[in-house]
Write a structure and sequence with these properties.
The protein is an alpha/beta fold. Helix content is about 45%, strand content about 15%. Helix 24 packs parallel to helix 26 and helix 32 (about 780-795) packs antiparallel against helix 33 (about 800-815). It is globular, with a radius of gyration of 29 Å. The structure holds 1,4-dihydronicotinamide adenine dinucleotide. 1,4-dihydronicotinamide adenine dinucleotide binds near residues 39, 60, 61, 164 and 192.
Length: about 850
C-alpha cells in the first residue's frame, strides 16, 4: 500500500491552512436560535433545537389581513397576546409540528422552549438575540436573498447564519451581502425529519470562515447529535444529488420492464440494505410533484454531468403524469403510488398503484401482493453482502432473472454514479458513504458496498453490462490498490482519487465505540449471549474497565446473559466470586468499574420469553423461581457495588433491559431510547427488582396516612399500563430514568460518553454496600390502588385478567401489613412470588405464547 501521511494539496484547490482543524470547541456557545419559516422543515428544526435545550424563536410571515399591533415589547415573548392574530401562519406550522407523528419533540413539554413570532413585528428583536439564525423559507432565491438583507441588519456580530436550502447555490443566497456576513454564512442542510435523520450537510462557500464551519460542526455533533458531512457548493450537495439520480434510473428501468410497485419496493428495499420505503414509498413521502421539481431544477444546473438525462426519465414516464394530473401527489394527499385502504373491520392496508394502467392514463390500485421471488426471499436472513453476492451470481447465470436484474441495475448505477461524481461533489469517498448511510439509512455506503463485493469483480461486471466505471477506478486497480478503504495497524485509510493514494479517514473519529472496544480490549468471559471485555485504560484514565456486551438475538436476556453478568459482577466486587475470572490491570490495579453497553439494533428487549414460557408450561416452578431470584440478587449486587456500574441504553429497552439499567449507578441513555417495563402485556409483572427499584426511588410516605403515598400512583400507572417512553427525556418523566441520569444526543458517541461518565464516577468516593429500605404503603395503600383498578374496570379500560394482574402488582408494591419501611430483600420476595404465581396462570401463558407468535400483546 502506498501511503502519504502528509498528503499534497488536491489539484486545483488551495492547500488548507495548517490550522483549519482547531481543537474541538465542546460547548460552542450556541444557546439561542431563530428559525425563519415554520413549514415542514423550519418547525421541525425548531423542535430539534428545543430538544437540545436551546431557546428558540420560530418566525414566519405575518398574517396578511391583520393590522400591526402597537409596539408593546421587544420580543414575541414580551407581547404574545397582541401578536397572536398576526402569528396565525407561524402558529399553524407550529401546531402541525406538535401533532405530527412520529413526534418531533422528545416530550410535549419541550415546546415551551419555542417562542412564536412574525417577520414584520419580531425579526429584529429575535435575530438580535440569537447565536444562530436558520433560514427555512420557500425554496426560491429572491425571497431568501431579501431575507438575508434583513438578517444582516439585525444579527449580532458573533451570530452564525445558515440556510436550509436543498437545491439553491449557497453562494448565490449571499449575493449583495457584506464580506463579514459571507464569513459567517453557510448551508446547514437538515434531513426530514431532523430529530430522526442523523445527517447534517454543512456547505461552506469560499468566503465562509473555516473557524465558523468548525464551530457549527462541533455544536451539531455534540449538542444536536448529528453526523456532519462537509459538502461542496454543488447542486443538491451530496445525498440529494445521489438519490435523485438513483431513483430516476431505477424508476425508468422498472416502469419500462413492467415491474409492479410491490416488486420494486421489495427489490430496492431492505433486501439490498436500503430502508423499507424502497423506491415508490420514498417518492410518496418526498411528494411526487416535489420530486419532479427537484429533478427539473437539478437538470438545468448540471449541464456538465453526462448522466443528467436520467433525471428526465420520471418526467417522461406517463404513470407519473397520470398521478400529477389526478392530484395524487403522495403521502401529503393520502395517495400516490400507495393508497391507504381501510376495510369494514377497521384494518388498514396499503394498496399499490397499477403502474401499467397508470401508463395508459388510468388510476387503479391493487391490494398488496407478496412479490414472487422465492430464491431471493430464501436469502433474506443472510448478511447483506452474502445476500448481494448470491443475487449477483444469479444475475451472472441468468441475466433475464427479473429480481436479480433490477437489483443489479439499481446497485450498479448507485456505485458507478458515486464514483463518477468524485471529486465534483465531495472531497472524499467517505463523505459520499456517510451521506447515504446517514441521510437515507442505507446499511452501507456505495464505496463500502463496492469494496465488500470486490472492486475489480464488480467493475468487470459493470463493464460487461455496459455501465462503464470512471477511469480512476481502473487506474486505482492498475496501481495494485484493490479496495477503496484499507487499514494499517488500527487506523482507517481511504483512497483519494485526486492524489492517487490512500489518506487517513478524516476527522470525526470516535475514540470509543464497539469496534474500538473489540480492538483494544480482551474478552475475559464469553458465551453465545454476552461477552465481558477487559478494556485497558489510557494515560489520563490508567485503570482498566470492564465492559459487558450483550449479543443474543435482539439482546434478549437468557441464562447465558445472567452467567456473563455474574462473571462481570464477580470481577467487579472485591473478594467475591470466581477469582480466576476477576481481571485486574497488568500492574495489578483493579478495574475502574463496569460499563454495560453494546452496538446491537436495540440495547435489550428483556428476558427471553420462550425460556420462561417453556419453564411455565413444564410447571417447572423451581427453575423459574431460581431464574428470577438469580437476576434479583445479581442486580442488587451491581447496585450496591463499591465500583460504579454505568449502563448505556439506546433504542428499545424493555422489561429486564430496564431492570439492567435500574441496577446501574448511572445511566447514560441515547436520546432515542424507548424504555418500558412491559411485563403486564405478557401477563406478568417486573420480577428482577423493577417493582422494588421504582418504589425505592419514587415512593415516600404522604403527609396524610389515608392519602396515596407520594409517587405510588405514578409508578403503578407506568407498570400496569406497560408504558414505553417515547425518548430518554420521556423516560425521566415516567420515572424509569433518574433526573441525574444523562441523555446523550449523539448515538455514535454513546459509548464514549458513558465511558467518560464511568471514570468520572470512579474518581468520586462512594459508600460501600448501600443497602436501602423501601417504603411499602401497606393495606391502606393497597386499598387505594384496588379502588383505582375497579374504577378502570368499570370504565371498560381493564379486562378481568388485566385486573387480576393489577391486583398482584398492587400487592407487590404495597404489601399486606402496616405501612412502613422494609428491607429490599422482603420486597424482592413478594415480587418473585407474584411473578411465579402469574406465570402459572393459563391466561398469562396465552399472552406469552401470543407475543412470541405474533409480536403483539393479547388482551385476554
Ligand atoms: P414549506 O413550504 O413547508 O414551508 C416554507 C415556510 O416558509 C412556510 O411556512 C411559508 O409560510 C414560509 N415562507 C414562504 N415564503 C416566505 C417568505 N418570502 N418569507 C418568509 N417566509 C416565507 O417548505 P419546507 O419543505 O419546510 O422547506 C423549507 C426549506 O427547506 C426549503 O429551502 C427546502 O428546499 C428545504 N428543505 C426541505 C426539505 C423537505 O423535506 N421538505 C428537506 C430539506 C430541506
Amino acid at each position: 500500500m502506498s501511503t502519504d501521511r502528509k498528503p499534497a494539496p488536491a489539484a486545483g484547490r488551495e492547500p488548507a491552512p495548517a490550522q483549519t482543524a482547531p481543537t474541538p470547541i465542546k460547548n460552542a456557545n450556541i444557546k439561542t436560535a431563530t428559525v425563519i419559516g415554520a413549514g415542514t422543515m423550519g418547525a421541525a428544526i425548531a423542535a430539534h433545537l428545543a430538544n437540545a435545550g436551546l431557546t428558540v424563536y420560530l418566525l414566519d410571515m405575518a398574517a396578511p389581513d391583520e393590522p400591526a399591533p402597537d409596539a408593546s415589547g421587544d420580543t414575541p415573548a414580551d407581547a404574545p397576546a397582541e401578536h397572536a392574530p398576526r402569528n396565525r401562519i407561524v402558529a399553524a406550522g407550529f401546531e402541525r409540528m406538535r401533532s405530527a407523528r412520529p413526534a418531533h419533540l422528545y416530550t410535549p413539554q419541550l415546546a415551551q422552549n419555542i417562542t412564536l413570532g412574525n417577520l414584520e413585528d419580531d425579526l429584529d428583536a429575535c435575530v438580535g438575540r440569537s447565536d444562530w439564525i436558520i433560514e427555512a423559507i420557500v425554496e426560491k432565491l429572491e425571497p431568501k436573498q431579501a431575507l438575508m438583507a434583513r438578517i444582516e441588519a439585525a444579527a449580532p456580530a458573533h451570530a452564525i447564519i445558515s440556510t436550509n436550502t436543498s437545491g439553491l447555490l449557497i453562494a448565490a443566497i449571499t449575493a449583495g451581502r457584506s464580506a463579514d456576513f459571507a464569513r459567517r454564512f453557510l448551508g446547514a442542510h437538515f434531513f426530514n425529519p431532523p430529530r430522526y435523520l442523523y445527517l447534517l450537510e454543512l456547505i461552506p462557500t469560499p468566503a465562509t470562515d473555516p473557524a465558523i464551519v468548525q464551530q457549527l460542526r462541533t455544536f451539531a455533533i455534540h449538542s444536536l447529535g448529528k453526523g456532519v458531512v462537509i459538502c461542496r457548493d454543488t447542486p443538491n450537495f451530496i445525498a440529494n444529488r445521489m438519490i435523485s439520480y438513483i431513483i430516476s434510473q431505477t424508476l425508468e428501468f422498472a416502469v419500462e420492464r413492467g415491474y409492479t410497485v410491490d416488486e420494486v419496493d421489495y427489490l430496492a428495499g431492505p433486501l439490498i440494505g436500503r430502508p423499507r420505503s424502497g423506491l415508490f414509498r420514498l417518492l410518496d413521502v418526498i411528494g411526487i410533484d416535489v420530486m419532479a421539481q427537484i429533478n427539473r431544477n437539478l437538470y438545468t444546473l448540471i449541464a456538465h454531468d453526462p448522466d443528467r438525462d436520467a433525471l428526465q426519465a420520471p418526467l417522461h414516464t406517463a404513470a407519473w403524469d397520470t398521478l400529477i394530473a389526478a392530484g395524487h401527489l403522495g403521502s401529503k394527499r393520502g395517495q400516490g403510488f400507495y393508497k391507504t385502504v381501510t376495510d369494514d373491520e377497521g384494518t388498514r392496508a396499503f394498496w399499490t398503484l397499477d403502474l401499467q394502467a397508470a401508463r395508459a392514463g388510468t388510476v387503479d390500485y391493487h391490494p398488496p401482493q407478496t412479490p414472487d421471488f422465492p430464491a431471493l426471499h430464501a436469502l433474506r436472513r443472510a448478511p447483506l453482502v452474502e445476500r448481494l453476492r448470491a443475487i449477483l451470481a444469479q444475475f451472472d447465470t441468468d441475466p433475464q432473472d427479473r429480481g436479480a436484474a433490477l437489483v443489479w441495475h439499481t446497485v450498479a448505477h448507485a456505485l458507478v454514479y458515486a464514483a463518477r461524481r468524485l471529486p465534483e461533489i465531495a472531497d472524499s469517498i467517505v463523505d459520499i458513504d456517510r451521506a447515504m448511510r446517514w441521510g437515507f439509512i442505507w446499511e452501507m455506503g456505495p464505496f463500502e458496498l463496492w469494496d465488500a463485493l470486490g472492486v475489480a469483480d464488480t467493475a468487470a461486471r459493470m463493464t460487461a453490462s455496459g455501465i462503464e466505471p470512471p477511469a480512476w477506478v481502473g487506474e486505482m486497480l492498475a496501481q495494485g490498490h484493490t479496495s477503496f478503504y484499507t487499514t494499517e495497524d488500527t487506523d482507517a485509510w481511504v483512497y483519494d482519487p485526486t492524489r492517487t493514494t490512500y489518506v487517513p479517514v478524516a476527522g470525526d473519529s470516535v475514540r470509543w465505540d464497539m469496534p474500538a472496544i473489540h480492538r483494544k480490549g480482551k474478552a475475559v468471559y464469553a458465551n453465545d449471549s454476552a461477552t465481558v471485555h477487559l478494556v485497558p485504560g489510557t494515560e489520563t484514565t490508567p485503570q482498566p474497565m470492564l465492559l459487558l456486551e450483550f449479543h443474543s438475538k435482539l439482546n434478549a436476556l437468557d441464562p447465558g446473559s445472567l452467567d456473563a453478568l455474574e462473571a462481570a459482577r464477580d470481577a467487579l466486587l472485591e473478594g467475591t466470586g470466581n477469582t480466576d475470572q476477576r481481571p485486574t490491570g497488568n500492574d495489578g490495579t483493579s478495574v475502574a468499574g463496569l460499563l454495560i453497553a453494546n452496538a446491537g439494533v436495540h440495547f435489550c428487549v428483556g428476558a427471553n420469553l420462550q425460556h420462561m414460557l417453556d419453564a411455565a408450561q413444564a410447571q417447572d416452578w423451581d427453575t423459574l423461581s431460581k431464574f428470577i431470584q438469580r437476576g434479583q440478587y445479581l442486580f442488587l449486587d451491581l447496585r450496591r457495588a463499591a465500583r460504579p456500574v454505568v449502563a448505556a441504553p439506546f433504542q428499545r429497552v424493555l422489561g429486564g433491559g430496564v431492570e439492567v439499567c435500574l441496577a446501574a449507578q448511572r445511566v447514560v441513555a441515547q436520546a432515542e431510547t424507548y424504555l418500558g417495563l412491559v411485563e403486564t402485556s405478557v401477563g406478568l409483572i417486573p420480577g428482577w427488582g423493577g417493582c422494588k427499584e421504582l418504589t425505592r426511588r419514587h415512593v415516600y410516605p404522604g403527609a396524610d396516612s389515608h392519602a396515596m403515598p407520594a409517587g405510588l400512583e405514578r409508578i403503578f400507572d407506568t407498570i400496569v399500563g406497560a408504558r414505553v417512553s417515547t425518548s430518554a427525556h420521556d423516560a425521566q418523566r415516567l420515572g424509569l430514568l433518574d433526573p441525574d441520569d444523562i441523555v446523550a444526543m449523539n448515538p455514535m458517541r454513546l459509548i464514549e460518553t458513558a465511558r467518560a461518565q464511568l471514570y468520572a464516577l470512579a474518581a468520586q468516593p462512594r459508600p460501600k454496600n448501600a443497602a436501602a429500605q423501601v417504603y411499602a404503603a401497606g393495606r391502606a395503600g393497597r386499598a387505594l390502588l384496588d379502588a383505582r383498578i375497579e374504577d378502570r374496570q368499570s370504565r371498560g379500560q381493564f379486562t378481568d385478567y388485566d385486573c387480576a394482574i393489577a391486583h398482584q402488582l398492587a400487592h407487590v408494591l404495597c404489601g399486606d401489613g402496616d405501612a412502613g419501611w422494609q428491607p429490599e430483600e422482603t420486597f424482592l420476595e413478594r415480587e418473585r412470588e407474584a411473578f411465579v404465581r402469574l406465570a402459572g396462570e393459563p391466561n398469562t401463558q396465552a399472552r406469552m405464547a401470543h407475543m412470541l407468535r405474533t409480536g403483539k400483546p393479547l388482551r385476554n
